[in-house]
Amino acid sequence: MGMIVPAITAVGGYVPDYILTNRELEKMVDTNDEWITTRTGIKERRILKGEGKGTSVMAVKVLERLLEKSGTDPKDLDAVIMATITPDYFFPTTANLVATEVGAVNAFSFDMAAACSGFIYALETGANYIRSGNYKKIAVIGADKMSSITNYKDRNSCILFGDGAGGVLLEPNEEGLGIYDTILRSDAVGKELIYLKGGGSVNPPTHATIDAGLHNFYQDGKSVFKYAVTSMADVAAEIMVRNNLKGDDIAFLVPHQANKRIIDATANRMGVGPEKVMMNIQYYGNTTAATIPLCLWDYENQLKKGDNLILAAFGGGFTWGSMYLKWAY
């Protein structure tokens, strides 16, 4: 028996039908298509419409696709791990709702909140369950309904976000293909630069918190940008050095889709050309925990067994991290 490596064996994604374009945003706030595109690379984003529809609606679609693609009986799932900062409720967890909806009656499930780095955090958590030898099939999903916390009167932030979900199935691999190394970091230095202050135990919902806009996402864009450029590039370069990798060794950089300039800076630091960078920010915007798995979903047919991938993300908290894996199929 060879070394057991946790490997991605299926990828799934889902984005809502409704497309919110830059042109439409021009009618809502003082902005324009050229300004948005130049600074972010975003042309449009998807929005989940419909009364009572939360993040779980999108995540269920993803899990159903993972099960179908892999031929997996939902009863054989050991766990469902959800990365999200826009859960349906504080509890029950969104993962619990999703697992129950698809009939994963034998799986344990839980949510993780690490903002835009959430998928890498959740993927490493799932990978360690596989490494333990006690679990064989784990679904890891990143999903966020960012429209639920976006202030569409704030011209600086409302242009950034969309709704979406993506995920993977993790299973043991004995060919030496899969997740090899992960670096995770966090620092609360950014707590006043990017946050959602309302709804928790410090500021529980009241008329006052609602009137003050504390239940909407806020960020100091310029300051967050500076931290993101440095931290995401640093950690992506660090994992390459740790694993003796050069730019030529990498098939694809799979970056969090927050801002094209941040993505370009990370690729430049790694010595990776634009042809090796997964990019779909122009279509979906920043879907927070969903961006990396949505990239894998969009680029799946370009991946080959054994390809070296570097995943990298930076998010509120601050949280950031990178992962090195070999594609398993």
Overview of the molecule:
There is one protein chain. By secondary structure, the chain is α/β, with parallel strands linked by helices. The chain has two domains: 5-177, Thiolase/Chalcone synthase (Peroxisomal Thiolase, Chain A, domain 1, 3-Layer(aba) Sandwich); 180-326, 3-Layer(aba) Sandwich (Peroxisomal Thiolase, Chain A, domain 1), CATH 3.40.47. It is 31% helix and 24% strand. It contains ten helices and 13 strands. The protein has helices at residues 22-26, 33-40, 55-70, 94-102, 118-131, 207-211, 221-242, 260-270, 281-284, 291-299, and strands spanning 5-14, 18-21, 44-47, 79-83, 108-112, 138-145, 163-173, 179-186, 194-195, 218-219, 252-255, 308-315, 319-326. The strands form four sheets. Strands 1-7-6-4-5 form a five-stranded mixed β-sheet, with helices on both faces. The protein has a four-stranded mixed β-sheet with strand order 8-13-12-11, with helices on both faces. A two-stranded antiparallel ribbon has the order 2-3. Strand 4 (79-83), helix 4 (94-102) and strand 5 (108-112) form a beta-alpha-beta unit. The longest helix has 22 residues, at 221-242. The model has no long low-confidence stretch (mean pLDDT 97).
